[in-house]
Structures are given as C-alpha cells and as structure tokens.
Amino acid sequence: MIELKDVSKTLSHREILRHVSLEIKDGESLGLNGPNGSGKTIILKTILGFVRPSSGEVLVNGVPNRAKTLFATAIGFSLGEEALLPNFSATKNLELIVLTTDHELNRQVIREALIRVELNPDDRRPIKFFSLGMKQRVSLAAALINNEPTMIFDEPTNGIDKKGQLFLRELFSELWGQHKTLIITSHDETFLNDVTDRILEVSAGEVTASEE
Amino acid sequence: MVSQSEGFFNPKNLMVLKRNACLFYGRPKFRLLLLIVPILLMVIAGGRSVFYGISITALPKSVPYYWLIQLIMPLLIMGESSRRLFRHDIILSPRVSLNHYLLDNLLIVGSFSLLIWISYGLASFIFLNHALFWSYFGLHLLFINSIYSLLAVLFKPTMVILVGLILSVFNVFSGDISFLNLTMIARFSVPDVWVGLFELCLILGGLLVLVRWAFNRIDYTL
C-alpha cells in the first residue's frame, strides 16, 4: 500500500504540491489526470523517493520514504525518456536496470521484455536515435522488466500511435488481471477510464476526486 | 545467467562503474580539447614557467596566469559531469549503496586526475628536475578534483570554479593556503607537503560526511 499524508512540496518559493493526501491499496489501479505542469509527475517522483516532500510523509508498504533507503523499493517505473540513458542501447538500458536490483540478470528475460513492447531486441543503436514512441516503449519495458508488485507509469501514451494505444490497453488489462498495484498519469481521461479503477484530478498541485 | 558474487569488483559493480565512467567521460569529451591550452603553454613557454608561480616574497606581486590556467583547467573540463552523475543519472535503485556510488565517483575522478597528470607531465617534462614537486602535484590533482566533484553535487559548478579562482588569486597575495602554495615551484617546500596533504584530507573527509548527509535531503532531478 502507498500512502501520501498531507504532502506539500515547495520549489524556488513555488508550491508545486499542496497538502496531497491519498492512499493506493494493493492491487488497485489508480489514474492521475490533469494538464501539463499540474503536479502529476512530481507526485510519482515523491512516491519513488526522488523528490523529498517539504512537509508531510510518504509511506510505501508502511515504510516512510528515505527512512531506510534513498529510493522506494519494489516499484517498477516508467518515467519516459528522461529516466533512460540516451547513449546506451535498449538492451543495455534494461540490463543496467536489472543489475541494480536483487534480480538475476537473465538476457532472455530482457529479450522477451523488448519483444513484449514490440521492439527489436537485436537493435544495438543507442536509444538517442529512436523515435519518441520507441523510447516510450523502452521506458515501458523498464517498468515491466523486474515484474515488481507495484508499477508506476508517467504519461505512457506519449508518442504512442493508435495501434500502440490498443497494445497499451491490453498490457494494462493484463497487469490489472495480475493484481498489480498501478499508478498511471495521463492527460487522456478516456484512456485512464479504460485502464484504471479510479481517477483523481490533479490541478495546480492539489488532488481532488474526479467528477465522473 | 550472470552471477552477482559478493565483493566490490563483482560483475554488477563493475557494470555500474563502467556505466558511470561512460557518463562521466561522455559529457566533457569535447571539453577535453581545452587541455590543449595548458599543454601548448607548457610546450611553448616551458614547464618551469607554467608551474613556477610567484614567490611569496616577490614584489610587486602579480597573478601568474600560466599557473592559474593549468590549475583551473581540469575543473573546467570536468564541468557538471559529477553533478549530473549524482543528481540526474544516479542509479535508481535502493540496492546500490551510496558508499558504492561515492567510491565509483572517486575512482573515476582518480582516473581523470591521472590522465591530466600524465598529460601535463609529458608536455612539460617537469618531473625530470622537480620529481618531489611533481609527485605532490599528482596527489594535489587527485584531491582537488575529488573535492570539486563533491562540491559540484552541492553547489552549481560555475560557482564552485569561481570561488576556486578567487581563492587561488587571493592566495597569490596572501600565501595562507598551504596546499595551493605547494602547486607553485616558487613556494614548494618539502616540510610543508604534510601540511598541504593534511589540509586536503581534512577538506575531502569533511565533504564526504557533508555529501552523505545532504543526499537524504536533496531532490533528484530525474
């Protein structure tokens, strides 16, 4: 379970999160909807431990963030291309993600993860030469590779074409069927309606329940 | 399967080290061309002129620009490399310890310092006549580059370089900072080497403690 208790974050005298409190139960699929710059990604980064709240507390499985480790454990995440190394191939990016966990490095699993997101595992080009959609798929594979019980996806539809969106819907349905805890941000409410149990609106750093 | 045995030099740690080295050297690869400036100075003006500096008793005092250039150039080449390695490209896993990450950084900075030391040495051949000075200078480079790499995690690299520049110029006139005095042949004295190394150890040790404390308090820009 993930809990945010009255979390606020101020950066350069600007309050980017305002008293955010939310609870995500195990096996739940939560959508965060809101315009660009509303604070969706900061919420994800706060859960992961990359961003330290100015006030309030984040608990992941009952453990406060940064109490024992710098970053939250057992969460797979896809934060788009900014979390990938542009000069490394897709395979190498995934190998590095696996190597920094307790999981064994199994190259077959990496090949399968790349095939699962419809990428060629034999493509040795650095990902800086990939299209936005291809980078997004590498990022998705990064979230899936360790098969963690909780997964976080930031704007997974960015750069993905219509065929890819169908694939994403199938993927999230599959994960939902496996009782994974999912947190997905998007400004596409229709997409979130299809793949999540409930949606929260994020606006100017505040979180409210969706009107629908 | 790749086994992940214990010990620092296991495949997992070596891959992280390789990754960080690629990132560290990947960014300043064009800035490495800046090395041409001090190297040309050493070839044209001679190593002794570049490293001579200015005696503490010399009057009137003027800033020895050649000395200043060779001193500041490694920091300009490193730029924001360490800062990005820690604040942007930090391994996104709780399973890579901060100690391991810091040690990786020190190893990489060590290799960079060695590169600078060898380049300066081959350009100036200063080690032929000033072997002790040259040995200290190698240690100085190692310490100063490590100190800079840690300071750049906490503060903006341009600010750190600017403060370093001001301190160096200040020390030309005051001569209060032993480890900087020792980088000039004109002020180098063997008994002061231990004082200089002690000062550098103290600063580096203090910074390691400070950075470890700060790591839990900073935001990662990823």
From TrEMBL, chain A:
Residues 2-212 form the ABC transporter domain. One of its GO terms (molecular function) is ATP hydrolysis activity. Keywords: ATP-binding, Nucleotide-binding, Transport. It comes from the Bacteria. This is ABC transporter ATP-binding protein. SUPFAM superfamilies: P-loop containing nucleoside triphosphate hydrolases. InterPro entries: AAA+_ATPase (IPR003593), ABC_transporter-like_ATP-bd (IPR003439), ABC_transporter-like_CS (IPR017871), ABC_Transporter_VariousFunc (IPR051782), P-loop_NTPase (IPR027417). Gene3D superfamilies: P-loop containing nucleotide triphosphate hydrolases.
UniProtKB/TrEMBL annotation, chain B:
Keywords: Membrane, Transmembrane, Transmembrane helix. The chain crosses the membrane at residues 32-51, 63-81, 102-127, 133-155, 162-182, 194-215. This is Uncharacterized protein.
